[in-house]
Amino acid sequence: MTLDDLIGPAAVAALDGGLATELEAAGHDLSDDLWSARLLRDDPGAIEAVHLAYFRAGARVAITASYQASEEGFAHVGVGAAEARRLLRRSVELALTARERHVAETGVEGLLVAASVGPYGAMLADGQEYTGAYGVGRDVLLGFHRRRLAELAAAGPDVLAIETIPSAPEADVLVELLAEHPDVPAWIAFSCADGSRTCEGQPIEEAVEIATRSPQVVAVGVNCTRPEHVAELLQRAATATDRPLVAYPNNGRVWDGANRCWLGVGAEGFAVAEVDRWRAAGARLIGGCCGVGPAGIRHLAAGLAA
Q1: What number of CA atoms fall less than 13 Å from residue 191's CA on the CB side?
Q2: DSSP assignment, residue 37?
């Protein structure tokens, strides 16, 4: 399968924005270790409502609330392994239900559900998805990601969103595990420190080369990275692959892992000229991450459709 099969030949699709951003805007406290994943257990209707809000804003792809969901993470709050696996599957079910509701309301077809596969660092809940400094071996990463991938793939998403990956070695682990689910396409997006390197410090070209060793990877790129770095990162990525690119930056702030807060001032969305540079570099999946809400996605989707 290729990206053309998912979104249409030569098409550019709008992704959604920050799930947690909109949940917090609705008044939900996401300050604990589970972040938005807690609401899979406590208020699944709130997650479904956010997916629906992004579809209504013009997103063609909903990314599930599984970014920080794992057996290990749920175990920290007393949730057993079987229930954790059910909640992982629920994340996909909620997005599928939101899609069904939107199609019933509007008749719009061609919408996708992408199951979020966050990095090992997201489970640690201390900002290590922006450093890659885990201090664990490959076997630990294989075990952690194998269990999550199996549940998410079995839940029936259209694609896996392997996202905010801070290092080439972690991408290598995920590429190995994708082969265990050969019928499921995926994209891989890296979190990056600047315009040339992953958060752990590898050249983006090296990370892209590793990610695209899997024939299941239909797009590769960056997410939850400051928007001013994205054009250069995509241009560099394009020298290492001829596959389509994906870009969904945050709104320009910096995550303070120790205090669990975003620092600095961010924008609601992205300038048209900025998005045009991403498209020119080869991006065909474009959206927003932390700090970008439905208003920003509405502006983005309108620009992509123009």
Answers
A1: 26
A2: G
Let me know: does 61 contact 99? Beta carbons within 8 Å. no
In this structure, the strands spanning 261-263 and 254-256 are: antiparallel
Q: What does 253-283 look like in DSSP terms, one character per residue? A: -EEETTTTEEES---SS--HHHHHHHHHHTE
- Please choose, from the candidates 258, 194, 278, 284, the residue with its C-alpha nearest in 3D space to the C-alpha of residue 2: 284
| CATH number (domain holding residue 242) | 3.20.20.330
d(C-alpha 122, C-alpha 126), whole Å: 8
Predicted confidence at residue 156, as pLDDT, reads 98
Contact partners, residue 227, CB within 8 Å, separation at least 6 = 249, 250, 251, 252, 267, 270, 274
Least confident of 81-85, 205-209, 265-269: 265-269
Total count of domains within the chain? 1
Q: Which one-letter amino acid corresponds to residue 289?
A: C
Tokens found for residue 245: 């690119």
Q: 14-18, 33-37, 93-97, 112-116: lowest mean pLDDT where?
A: 33-37
Which is higher by pLDDT, 166 or 251?
166
List the domain range (segments joined by +) for residue 180: 3-305
17 class by beta-carbon count within 10 Å (0-12 exposed, 13-18 middle, 19+ buried): buried
Based on C-alpha coordinates, what's the Rg of the chain?
Answer: 17
Q: What is the helix (H) or strand (E) element at residue 209, kind and residue range?
A: helix 204-211
d(CA 209, CA 142): 20
